[in-house]
Amino acid sequence: MKNWKENVRRVVPYVPGEQPKDTNIIKLNTNENPYPPSPFVLKAINSLGNESNRRYPDPTSDKLVKALADFHGVGSDRVFVGVGSDDVLGMIFMTFFNSEKDVLFADVTYSFYPVWCEMLRINYREIPLDDDFKIRKEDYMVENGGIVIANPNAPTGIIMNKNDLIDIIEANSDSIVVVDEAYIDFAREGQSCLDLLDKYDNLIVVRTFSKSRSLAGLRIGYAISSAEIIKLINDVKYSYNSYTMNSLQIEGGSASVSDNDYFRSMIKKVVETRERTTKELEALGFEVLPSSTNFIFAKHNKISGTEIFEYLKDNKIYVRHFNQERIMDYLRITIGTDEEMDSLIRSIKVLLDKKADI
Amino acid sequence: MKNWKENVRRVVPYVPGEQPKDTNIIKLNTNENPYPPSPFVLKAINSLGNESNRRYPDPTSDKLVKALADFHGVGSDRVFVGVGSDDVLGMIFMTFFNSEKDVLFADVTYSFYPVWCEMLRINYREIPLDDDFKIRKEDYMVENGGIVIANPNAPTGIIMNKNDLIDIIEANSDSIVVVDEAYIDFAREGQSCLDLLDKYDNLIVVRTFSKSRSLAGLRIGYAISSAEIIKLINDVKYSYNSYTMNSLQIEGGSASVSDNDYFRSMIKKVVETRERTTKELEALGFEVLPSSTNFIFAKHNKISGTEIFEYLKDNKIYVRHFNQERIMDYLRITIGTDEEMDSLIRSIKVLLDKKADI
């Protein structure tokens, strides 16, 4: 073996949900929004000329940072933007998780957290959710090198009691607590941790444009925290790649933030479809966890997760199935349009009828 | 001090060349191409609809990878694409530079190399160029944890003798040798290392769309190597961010690669302007290093680099000046349009006249 092979960073990469090239598929497997982004976005992108392609983009993404800062009522020095929340979280892990102690997160949560830890040689411990798939706050009141909580959690869809979350943040003033709010826009108001930022200097809130803003394709995520913490993340970012965001992302993202009425109305539609679909699935014998997101996590009382997953896939409906012990029988189903959910329900009914015949 | 502050990855970030927002500036400081990209690029970007914004992009960037593979006559499994060559190089450093031994590169070269090493805790040694700012191959025939050579080098613009480079690659079969060919398209043909890839399994060639393809704004870079090496880089990439490239980059980049005639003709224009500008600067008392790039590295025989830099900046002409010992008196001047270079020469003449009067 060549010596260079001894020094390779060997990793087991994250496997994202399938992105089939067949467009004739009902795609409920990667939590994309079924509705298009604000029409302002495409207009902003198409109004950019070649000059913005030829020149380096603004390395500080000022326009987008300012739009987000204004939207959330914080200073521009408190916002960090990156290539999707994955880039933002990756940078946060690199910047802050350099202790010998374990970083803590749930056993059932966004499956990228352990992947970053493995890749970046960060010690970590996965803490089992309780039997109702909820986070027990006491589990996070132990020595640690950092805490990451997806809230609402994925793939469960469950949101934490805010006071419990506050207790975790307070008990860990010596640690960075990252709250990954990728799905928070689909939750009831007042659940976000953003209003806690002024009180706790160890808190970082992470958001994405991929779900509620219908912009998975543009790749935009951001973090809000103190100016001090944002500067530390930016320093690492500028030590990796000065120009991560191109002008199309900066302009398109800013246009999305400017169109709040559209944003709210699309979220409302998704939430309504979620509530209706939940009832229909329950009527068909599914147990559906209470969702504060744009997906539902459900298992049938008779048929295995694998079987439903395969059946739906054969019928060109893609949902997400995790081959992981505790959640083998669950499916994570993205909320699509009403028509897409009708197709899903119809397909499941056919399967149930077939099984009843046997 | 809060404990979390003890575990912060503290870095001294790379400082990119200024990106002034004032559009009334002749910008010769970041090696952008003065000519627009192929018209196919904007057409491709503007033909994308909202569906490509709403959905996650293709995580493997198949279309762009295939376009580059075909362009260079290699298999698709031998091409890695990233968010500019900075992302590509950063991933390569993370993937392969994990030895205790020093990674080697020149003292005067792309200033991001030591920044990545500091950030990623990689041991490294900067090896002085010789008195003519050239790489001495013997210096790289010592124990090392990897080698990085910008060829042509920046900010000197000088290209290595290819046989010397081959000797380095051959002498280091136990190390990964990265040849950063960001500027190679402006060099004479036959100088690239791409044709060595089939012979040496320790070689990685890195390229960018930011210079010769006039697409600094889109953020596209790539690496070509063996299928084995590309897979290892991809594994690390998928452990950091599955979706780094958005559809606009994938489509715009592919469109650029498809328009080879345009590409060649723009390069020809830049090279002609470079040769003419070199002669004019020499006539004004500058020593100009032999450039194989889209910039020239020059120092005046009487006036300091800082003085010329400041004077030009006051006159709204931005060039690059490095506050670094050996190259303090040099300026790195990007080749702009003929009109821009005429303005530069005129401005320098005024300064020289002023100095002569004193």
Distance between the termini of chain A: 57 Å
> What characteristic shape of chain A results from the CA principal axes?
globular
Low-confidence stretches of chain A: none
Mean pLDDT of chain A: 95
Protein structure class of chain A = alpha/beta
What percentage of residues of chain A falls in helices of 4 or more residues?
25-40%
- Tell me about the biggest sheet of chain A? 7 strands, mixed
Work out the radius of gyration of chain A: 21 Å
Oligomerization category of the chains in this entry: homodimer
* Number of H/I helices of chain A: 11
| Most extensive chain interface and residues per partner | A-B, 86 and 86 residues
- Secondary-structure element pattern of chain A, one letter each: EHHHEHEHEEHEEEHHHEEHEEH
Strand content of chain A: 5-15%
Work out the number of β strands of chain A: 12
Strand order of the largest sheet of chain A: 2-8-7-6-5-3-4
Outline the structure in words.
The structure is a homodimer of 358-residue chains. In chain A, helix 1 (39-46) packs antiparallel against helix 8 (247-258), helix 4 crosses helix 7 and helix 9 packs parallel to helix 11 (338-357). The first copy, chain A, contains 11 helices and 12 strands. The first copy, chain A, is globular and about 65 Å long. In chain A, the strands form 3 sheets. Chain A has a 7-stranded mixed sheet with strand order 2-8-7-6-5-3-4, sandwiched between helices. Chain A has a 3-stranded antiparallel sheet with strand order 9-10-12, with helices on one face. In chain A, strands 1-11 form a two-stranded parallel sheet. The model of chain A has no long low-confidence stretch (mean pLDDT 95). Chain A has 358 residues and is an alpha/beta fold.
